Amino acid sequence: MTKPITEEAITNLYCDTFPTSLTIADLGCSSGPNTLVAVSEIVKVVDEIRRKLGHKSPEYQLLLNDLPGNDFNAIFRSLAGFQERMKKQMGDGFGPCFFAGVPGSFYGRLFHAKSLHFVHSSYSLKWLSQVPIGLDGNKWNIYMASTSPPSVLKAYYMQFQTDFSLFLKCRSEELVAGGRMVLTFSGKRSEDRSSKDCCSIWELLAVALNEKVGGGDL
Ligand SMILES: C[S@@+](CC[C@H](N)C(=O)[O-])C[C@H]1O[C@@H](n2cnc3c(N)ncnc32)[C@H](O)[C@@H]1O
C-alpha cells in the first residue's frame, strides 16, 4: 500500500533537483530480511528514472538507523552480498552506494543539520520513547484496551504527541530544503477503545499473559 507513495515522493525529489549525491536514511531499520528492502527499493526507483533521462547515476549514501542494541554487525556482514546483487540487477553505471549504521534513538538528533534528502521509516514510530506516565488503573492490560479508563488513553496520546513532535522537530533540522519523508505506522480511525482498528492484538496478548500469571505453575 505504501510503495506508490514512496515512489512518488522519491521521484519528485529526484526530478526537482537532479542531485549528484543522495543521502537516504531509514529509521528503525532493524536487522533481518526487511532491513535493506526499503533503501534498495528507493535506490531502484531513482536508478530507473535517471536511466530513462540519460543521466549519470548519483552517488548514494544510505544511513541505517536503529537503537544501539540492534544487530548492526549482522547488517554490515550482509552488505557485500547485497551490493553484488544490486550491481548485477542494475547493471553498469549504477552507484556507488556507501552504507553507514547510525545507532541511537530517533527521538533525538541523529544526523548533521541539512544533510538528508530522504527519510524513510516503517513500523517503527509506534514504539514510544518511554512508558507513558499515568497508567494507573490499567491493571491486567498491557496497552490501551476496552477496559482501560479514559486517563490511560490520554496518557498514551500525550506521550505519542510529545514523541512525535520531537521526531518531526529533529528531522526538520536534518532534512535539506525540499527533502522528503515517508513514514508508515499504524493508527486507528475510530475513537472507540474497543474498535478492532489497532489494539485488539495487544488485548489478546494480555489475556494470554494473565492466564500464565494466574496459572502459576506455567
Ligand atoms: C517492527 S521493526 C521495523 C523494521 C522495519 N523497518 C520494517 O518495516 O520491517 C521496528 C524497529 O524500530 C526500532 N526502534 C524502536 N524505537 C526506536 C527509536 N526510538 N529509535 C530508533 N529505532 C527504534 C526497533 O528497535 C525495531 O528494530
TrEMBL record:
PANTHER family per UniProt: S-ADENOSYL-L-METHIONINE:CARBOXYL METHYLTRANSFERASE FAMILY PROTEIN
Organism: Dovyalis caffra
Pfam family, one: Methyltransf_7
SUPFAM superfamilies, A to Z: S-adenosyl-L-methionine-dependent methyltransferases (SSF53335)
Domain of life: Eukaryota
The protein, known as: SAMT
GO terms for MF: methyltransferase activity
